[in-house]
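Much of what follows relies on a compact textual record of a protein's fold. Think of the row as the fold of the chain written in a discrete alphabet. An example makes this concrete, so a full record is given next.


***
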Amino acid sequence: MLGLNLDLASVVSLIFQLQNHAARLKHWILMGFALLILGLALHFTHAIPLNKQLYTFSYVCVTSGAAALVFSSIYALVDIWGWKCMFQPLAWIGMNAMLVYVMAAEGIFAGFINGWYYNDPHNTLIYWIQKHIFIGVWHSQRVGILLYVIFAEILFWGMVAGIFHRLEIYWKL
């Protein structure tokens, strides 16, 4: 039986032990749901509340479980159904992960776009996109900002990384 120690060697050995796609997906999805349910149960029973700042056990379980489910979904779409083209920007981001991390952490995208504003420095294109396209449609600030990050920031950095990939420019240590 596999333990919860998931270092790179464990993941690689798991891939070789579980020979077919169905066995891998079953294992990953079951572990993902188990971790997600455990984390949510700990939170809603007030045993260990979700707290990102403290990295509580419930927070780690919820985020690990959600990551396992997202990973399983992407694995099924890319490796089983062959939808590689749809996820190519993520591959480019992975090829230039250092560049994307440093530039995104410094807020280069937002700083570049926020350089232009109308009448008031707070009246920027980023603010307008967030308010009218994402927050206004979903009527929720949290959901709107999440969708903005997914559809604006990640797509922008995917295009930048794709251009760097085409030019064969890679940041490495």
About this structure: The first helix runs from residue 8 to 17. DSSP finds eight helices and no strands in the chain. The chain has a mean pLDDT of 83.
